[in-house]
Amino acid sequence: MKKKYSNFSRYKDVDEKKFKKMKIKGDPEYVTACLTSIIKVNKEWIVPRENDRTEKIMADGYQWLTLFPKGEKFTIIAVFNEKSEFLEFYFDIAKKTKPKAIIPYIYDLYLDIDETELTIEAELKKGEGLVTGTGTFIVEAGASIYPVTFTNANGEITIYNI
């Protein structure tokens, strides 16, 4: 078990980043959202995919949005590339989460869910980097289903719980 901060403070592969913590008021499902904008890495992260493919999930210009669902022992991470295109959802399963800390963190159990039942509808405007969509998360670590609408335009990310 390892303490993981949402601002990437312990990631040796990230040289420079910007971090923003957002409290989600009035939403009964989420407490905190954290956006880490990666400016410069010294090593890109490339992960294996199906059919002998690979995918880059961390590089210069990428963004990771971490959502802390209220009262749950997991986080939801949305990964966006340097063009602000959505790449994947990722779930960290934790022994304990601390979304209200100055820098939110989890005690990671390394029981990550990378294969999820997920439906996304996306509309791309060529050359504008606009992505809109909806997703339904089914997370076995909790009993809840989290419907989310996300909008990502011009580097701005907005998450709505519907």
Structure description:
The structure is a single chain. The protein contains no helices and 13 strands. The protein is mostly beta strands. A hairpin with a 4-residue loop joins strand 6 (63-69) and strand 7 (74-80).
Total DSSP E strands: 13
Query: Helix- and strand-based class?
Result: mainly beta
Largest sheet, in brief, is: 7 strands, antiparallel
Strand order of the largest sheet: 1-9-8-7-6-3-2
Overall shape: globular
Structural key phrases:
4-stranded antiparallel β-sheet, 162 residues, 57% strand, mainly beta, 13 strands
Element layout with pairings:
Layout: E1 2-5, E2 14-23, E3 30-41, E4 45-48, E5 54-58, E6 63-69, E7 74-80, E8 86-98, E9 105-108, E10 123-125, E11 130-138, E12 145-153, E13 156-161
